[in-house]
Amino acid sequence: MKIAAFATIKMNSERVPHKNTQPVGSRPLCWHILNTALAVKEIDRVYVYCSDEAVTDYIPSEVKFIQREKWLDGNSIRANDTYTAFVKDVDADIYIALCTTSPFIKHESIENALQKVLYEGYDSAFTARKMQTFAWYEGKPVNYDVADIPRTQDLEPVYVETSAFFIFTKKLWTEHQRRIGWHPYIQEVGEIEAVDIDTMEDLEFAQMLADHVLHI
Fold it and tell me: Tens of pLDDT along 65-85?
């Protein structure tokens, strides 16, 4: 069984210019999760999927660069488009899509989720924060009754995707275009692992946090 981990990378972004190459700790942002994936022994190969070979200056040398078509850098392109292209270019039984904007994810989290898919019957896996708090959606509470307010510890928890990684089989993607299947394993992560960089404020927070949690 072949397991391929990959990160799809653009060398520029709209909200945070040159986000993937911005420093977080002593390394570029995109370096961290790729280096983390290299520590997962079950993964056969870790790839970076980018249209610009210059990305190789910012990633671990053990990561294999595959050049994707330039049109995949378009602002209207969705993750689905890049996943489909990568699956066509690299054959594997199981794919692990890595998000470079999650620099603090631990290799143990990837490894545990992968074990669940490999050996415990789950068809996919993803990271999420377990939030046991009073949650609302479209003006209505989703996990409690306002007429009978429970203790916080008795609330039904909600899970919020953090998008650090998604694990899915080739069949799930090629037949259904889904990175989360019908029986997914939810890999719970804490506040630090859940950090995701979408804005300049997120980046600044991660840069401050890196001094305390990264040892590189």
Answer: 999 999 998 888 889 999 999
Question: What gap in Å lies between CA 216 and CA 63, rounded to an integer?
Answer: 18
DSSP state of 94: E
Question: φ, ψ for residue 7 (rounded to 5)?
Answer: -120, 130
Superfamily for domain range 3-124+163-213: Spore Coat Polysaccharide Biosynthesis Protein SpsA; Chain A (3.90.550.10)
Q: Which two tokens stand for residue 143?
A: 């996990």
Q: pTM of the full predicted structure? A: 0.93
User: Helix, strand, coil % (nearest 5) of the chain?
Assistant: 30, 25, 40
Beta strands per DSSP E along the chain: 3-8, 23-24, 27-28, 45-50, 64-67, 94-98, 124-131, 136-137, 140-141, 158-169, 184-188
Picking from 114, 103, 124, 164, the residue whose alpha carbon sits closest to that of residue 3 is 114
Vertex 93 angle, CA 90 and 99, to 5°: 65
Average pLDDT over residues 167-173: 97
CB proximity list for 201: less than 8 A, separation 6 or greater: none
How many beta carbons lie within 10 A of that of residue 84, not counting itself? 15
Domains of the chain, by residue range, sit at 3-124+163-213
29-57 tens-digit pLDDT? 999 999 999 999 999 999 999 999 999 99
C-alpha distances in angstroms, 13 versus 8, 18, 21, 101, 181?
13, 6, 11, 12, 29
